[in-house]
Amino acid sequence: MNQPEHLNWKKIAWKTCAAAIILVILIVLGRHIGPYIPHLEYQIEQMGPWAPVIFTIGFIVLCALFFPADALVLAAGAMFDFTWGFVYAGIATVLGATFMFLVARTGLKSKIEKILEKHPKLQVIDAAMGQEGFRLMFLLRLSPVPYAILSYMLSVCRVRFLPYILATVGMLISNIPVVYYGFVAKHLMKYAGRVEDKSTMHYVFLVIGVGVAIFTTVYVTFIVKRALRRYAQENESSDASSVGQPSA
Known about the structure:
By secondary structure, this protein is an all-alpha fold.
């Protein structure tokens, strides 16, 4: 019998406490770093369209070398504010996934396939791609699997390019709270450094937004893991039934 699945409130509490600690650290650091942020913003503004271009190129190269994508998405929120940070991070995410797909299908395909051979769980994903590839890829993009590892792995699976790229929409959804964290971090540090003077409620709503983002992230992860677990169970039951059937 399957045990009931419940949202992990303990995980939400731990993440909330960690966020509170990080907010305090940002405020303390902001007293020293905050006064320099307007100068950095001015420099980015002076770069004009080259700023997002450089960010995108850096994102593609660094992620291809397994640098954490979330750190770069976080930086996008701090560099370009929330809306444009989300747009530029989204463009970089899609282009990065495209680049890794092309690289994996050419020079690295044999090496990645050897890695798959050593990991049976990854081979199961490869086999499942032939049946319901897009749905599974979309769920995996929403899951906490590292961006570069998942991109390379999917690239050598039995998937076509268009479904592979369309499935990156899942990654764009997961980018939203990360961009927001970067956006909030910058404004709290500017407030602590006394170079930004907005109403107190403005910063209260920013912090409340962090709590909402944390809950949303944990909840989406919970839903995705439950869907992947059920998907795996369905595949196991279908495989077992096919094995039990007599051959013609």
